[in-house]
């Protein structure tokens, strides 16, 4: 998905939030924003939003000297999700339809996205309750269930720290023996890294690899050979979040996108509404 003019205010909002997390020094904050404004005025917009997002966050790290501005928030939401896990597991075990429940909970976890909204404004328990009641495309859900049942080699592209705990339930329901779960190699916004997967014990139940990059999405041309080899062998890809949709929605590969829409640009592109829980299938 390409960059639209409506993406620009979002880039700036996200940059300001990240700068304030990265440094408390007002002069450094101002310097970082000025550098970002210069970059945005010159960079080509003939690319995907995660390409520009990565450029912005790389500049923030360089100017502020903070390699991981979102680390405190990631730790907080990892622990919060871990604390909720017994309750989430109970909901699955007592559900009439465990598969649908794990899909809904995985979608609820996708709200832990600090690129789309500040962490302090996220009420996880409210999101869980909402996701369990929200309308879902039943036809898409059935096609997704059929696809994961038939698939023998699934690549699961994770999104954010904390959210990984919610994905853990879906991984267990599908069957971890046929899944490879993917995280980022280095910190970018609050995207999950191998460290996050280890903290929440995801690595104890499923194979976890990094994709070799720190793009807030999956840019295949930048990914490691190890990742690409596994990607090419996968007969199904599950891709979480807006960043993965923005970078993979035009790829000719069986992909199921799971996301909560937080952006009007993506809502328009996917022909849904902001706030919708979406199962979007690219099944060829």
Automatic annotation (TrEMBL):
Gene3D superfamilies: Uncharacterised protein PF01937, DUF89, domain 1, Uncharacterised protein PF01937, DUF89, domain 2, Uncharacterised protein PF01937, DUF89, domain 3
Damage-control phosphatase ARMT1-like metal-binding domain segment(s): 6-277
Pfam families documented for this protein: ARMT1-like_dom
Name under which the protein is recorded: Uncharacterized conserved protein UCP006593
Lineage of the species this protein comes from: Bacteria, Pseudomonadati, Thermodesulfobacteriota, Candidatus Desulfofervidia, Candidatus Desulfofervidales
């Amino acid at each position: 998905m390409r960059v639209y003019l409506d993406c620009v205010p979002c880039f700036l909002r996200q940059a300001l939030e990240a700068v304030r997390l990265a440094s408390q020094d007002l002069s450094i904050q101002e310097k970082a924003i000025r550098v970002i404004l210069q970059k945005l005025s010159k960079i080509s917009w003939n690319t995907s939003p995660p390409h520009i997002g990565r450029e912005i966050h790389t500049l923030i790290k360089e100017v502020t000297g903070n390699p991981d501005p979102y680390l405190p928030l990631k730790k907080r939401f990892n622990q919060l999700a871990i604390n909720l896990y017994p309750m989430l597991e109970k909901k699955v075990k007592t559900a009439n339809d465990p598969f649908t429940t794990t899909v809904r909970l995985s979608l609820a976890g996708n709200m832990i996205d600090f690129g789309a909204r500040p962490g302090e404004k996220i009420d996880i328990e409210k999101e869980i309750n909402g996701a369990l009641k929200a309308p879902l495309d039943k036809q898409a859900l059935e096609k997704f269930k059929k696809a994961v049942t038939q698939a023998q080699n699934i690549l699961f592209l994770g999104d954010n720290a904390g959210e990984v705990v919610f994905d853990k339930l879906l991984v267990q329901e599908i069957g971890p023996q046929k899944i490879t779960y993917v995280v980022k190699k280095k910190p970018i916004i609050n995207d999950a890294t191998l460290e996050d997967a280890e903290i929440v014990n995801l690595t104890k139940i499923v194979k976890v690899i990094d994709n070799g990059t720190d793009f807030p999405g999956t840019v295949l041309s930048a990914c490691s050979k190890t990742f690409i080899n596994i990607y090419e062998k996968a007969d199904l890809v599950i891709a979480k979040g807006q960043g993965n949709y923005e970078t993979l929605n035009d790829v000719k590969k069986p992909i199921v996108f799971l996301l909560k829409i937080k952006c009007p640009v993506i809502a328009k592109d996917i022909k849904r509404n902001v706030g919708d829980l979406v199962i979007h299938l690219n099944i060829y």
